Amino acid sequence: MKGILINYEYCTGCHSCEVACRNELGLTAGEYGIKLTEVGPYEYTTPIAADTPYEWVYNPTITKACDLCEARTALGKMPSCVQACQAWCMYYGEVEDLAKKMDGKTRWALYAPLSDDARSAMVAEREALAVEAGAAGVKHVDTAAKVAGKTESYGTWVGDMELNITLRGVEKLEAFLAEFATIDLEAAKLDLEAQIISDEKATAYVLAADKAVDGAAHELGLMAIAMNYDAQGTQLGGGKAYLDKGQAVARKDVTIMF
Amino acid sequence: MADYKEWLDELNREAYHDGEWQWQEGDFTVTRTTHWSPPGCHMGCGVLLYTKDNKLVKVEGDPLNAVANGKLCMRCLTMPEAVNHPDRLKYPLRRAGERGEDKWERISWDEAYDEITEKVLKIKEEHGSETIVVVHGTGRNIGWQVPYFASACMQTPNVSTFGFTGFACYLPRMIGTSAKQGDMFIVDASQAHWDRYASDRWQVPGVILVWGNEPIKSNADGFLGHWLVQCVQMGSKVISVDPRLTWWGARAAFWLPVRPGTDAVVAMAMLNVIIGEDLYDHEFVEKWTYGFEALAERVADKTPEWAEPICDVPADRIRGAARLIATASSCACQWGLAFEQQIAALGVTESVADIMAITGNIDNPGGNALYRCAFLIEKRYGLGDEYISKETYAKKLIPQTSGINESNIVSCADTDAILAAIETGEPYPIQMFWIQSSNALSCASMDPARTRAALMKVPFIVVADPFMTPTAQAVADIVLPVAMSCERNSCRTWWTPVRTMVKVTDFYEAKSDEQICLDLGKRIMPEHWPWETDEEWANWYLTDQLTPGGTEYQRTWWDTVHEPSSPENGCYGTSCNGTAYWEWDATYDKYAKGMLRPDGQPGFNTPTGRVELWSFGFDHWGVDPLPYHIEPPESPLSTPNTFKEFPIILSGGGRSFEFFHSEHRQLPTMREFHPWPLVMVNPADCEKYGVKDGEWIWVENSRGARFKQKVKATIEVQPGRIHAEHGWWFPEQDGAEPNFYGTYDSNLNNMTEAFRTGQGGIGSAIKSMLCKIYPVQEGDVLPHDVIAEKGDFAAYEPGKPYQVVEEPVVTVIN
User: Fold this and answer.
1) Could you tell me the fold of the domain covering B93-167+376-484+509-532?
2) Where would a tag sit more exposed on chain A, N or C end, judged by fewer CB atoms within 10 A?
3) Do B14 and A80 touch (CB under 8 A)?
4) Is the pTM value of this prediction over 0.80?
């Protein structure tokens, strides 16, 4: 079993592991594959047996996103964090071999993230639960699938802007179109995209009269959530307002629930 | 990494394409190169650039490059954010309104160059080329390009930083050690050896003396602080002399929390102990130093007990640290900016250099190595100044009373003399500023409002930068877009190894610093610019650079990029493509081997041939040739009345991982990790002064100058002392006057001043200012509004310092 050994006595809190990992995994702001924790600085007033009375140490913690840089190590490279660690206090290898370096002279931490087998089993289990929930028509509330029903996700482009759409409850849209529409699902999706882009706060999909069997407009209620990002992947609006400079939206992720 | 050999053995060199400079990995082209500003820093780490379709997508460190062995800071790891940033300048711009209106029109490079050329020629003819001032920032990437441009294109002797009173950055230590020893000393962390910590010539330092800097964050001047973390892992002990508790102090055998600006007192007391207890290296002192008796006499009464009430360090800690320095197997002194950023700059430089000398820690393994730039490829301030006529050169702006400037050891002009010339018109008014790699208003300039007011009197200003900075907004008439490191062909030495940079992408019309200098040089003074391309100019720099007989390097820039280095191509050891090591720097005891003096005799390159503990050079400059201390102009000792109302000592400018000086403020990841400027306040002081962790506070001095930063409650600072950050501006804010991206509002330089320096015009008291603190409240007037209305926080006379609020009662101690 492979792991990561950190001689955290020497960690300088430089953030390189955090950032190198994000680069490798493609994580976004606020997400980490490894994250620093800091203890101190504080001064012991209680007598302890130590070199100095000051406690100030960092210990990087590995998160569930870490896959031990499988793709890199397969090529003979170091995991990203180990390669970038400026304090040169991280090691990668077999857990039994790494444990031998822990000599009691300084502080060490040995991390064993999920093994491949465990990870595959976990993902398979969740997928199985989600399928079960859908097929039985019963809402099992679990972390994998909060909404029962048919979900479609796809990406497209609107000019220079990447648009990612997730539709939940597609069967409702299909039923609505079967009853009222002359256009098919693909055409309706294009129609829906245009409407959501022009009004992110829309609360219904409007089937125009000239696309309806009976020549009258019809509406299907929906809830839409849109998130906008600039070219750097920075979210626009919301809690990052100080980063908003009127950048163009480079990517829009929209989730629509019928 | 306690075992470098083991690391090397386990390194899979093939996985990192050993021997290649460029290759494909899936969709990416990967290029092995070095990074240097912009975006900023001094280090020159080896990087692997991942590009696709002319775009930089990812950066990793290069494990095969022995400078950093693939370890890389968070700034380089997120370099694509800077390189691809939507705010980057894409085209040359001309001001389309008044200065400060943020109105710009796009122009072509030809238009920009035509206008600049026309104006420069006219100014040279009507006013003289000395009326052109060339401004650079810290010498990180432009160490040779911009000085050559100033000499061989603008023909001006007036090259300088601007607003940076007292040359308060590295230069004092450089000239101080040049005078006393003939050469600079640098901590030996094996960095001159091609095989680094595995070199059998090298030994790990017995003790590392970290004084006046936090090298892990600052990595100043080609020295990577984390090299010392390796040394600690390999057994080095630590002594930390720093008002702040840092990673070093928390682990140190001795932490000396010196009162800011009193380091010379600590050093003199250490000398007292080392000499008084007979712990000094007798052999080295007798054979290789001059003036020991005079030094011993100077420090005879400077006991640790004498020192304690002045510097606030317990006597037994000074004594313990001194004994450890003298008795360790070796002592390496990692010294830093605090040495210059005090009035006693030359005094403290002398004293600490003397400690290293009398303990025999000069040019020994694991001590302080004497370095010159690899293959004598100097970084060369003053490069090309022979192209300026003697008549014009004599008009260089230097202060009247500076013996140092007259001896021309400093090739730069003096910023205060330039400021006086602008403010008074004497000896001549300035007609033009060329500003390349400097954001003076946010960073280097003391009293930035005064600097801006002065620049407004200069008729023509060009700024070259990758981003629109507050300085460009406030004063530029033309702005030129500068390329980033992955977009330039260049090379550099800083000590060793030689390093090359190779261009792999383009960004709109941005041009590299060297391309801009070359383009204008060829238009204005073609006889001094015989190169067609940046590559040809790089070749000249590597092999010629107007050195008689050329440098000791014989390869071209392209060959260095393309091929690994080895003894076969004249280099020391083997090193990866783009680096070349030099054996001279990796040799110890050069003084004994006759390697330092031009005549080849044993000894140092000084007037006496020895390390001068009593310095002829200093004496010639009119500076005390023995260690001395000067109290900061405002301090508990020198201005006790001011201290009653302003009871806190402010130091500032400590670095952080996220930023290099005033750069990186527009980058999302850097602001995610470090969103606001932080002022460190001890928890006891938070209570005493009614401020809270996370709250914005004002920091204000005796002339009413103030700035605001966010409190970080921490024991990193002692009670009675705070520490604020420098270089802050807010690119997300309005860039037009009066706000200028908020560059005045959190700027601790509001409290600094021009025209007040240490002996010889060297040193500036900016890390030890008295202040008071109180919470920011709704409706408080911001600094930029004060400056817009009154010009500055207090009135000043042209060419003169501020009136002192209180005459100092204690000044020189020697």
Assistant:
1) Rossmann fold (3.40.50)
2) N
3) no
4) yes
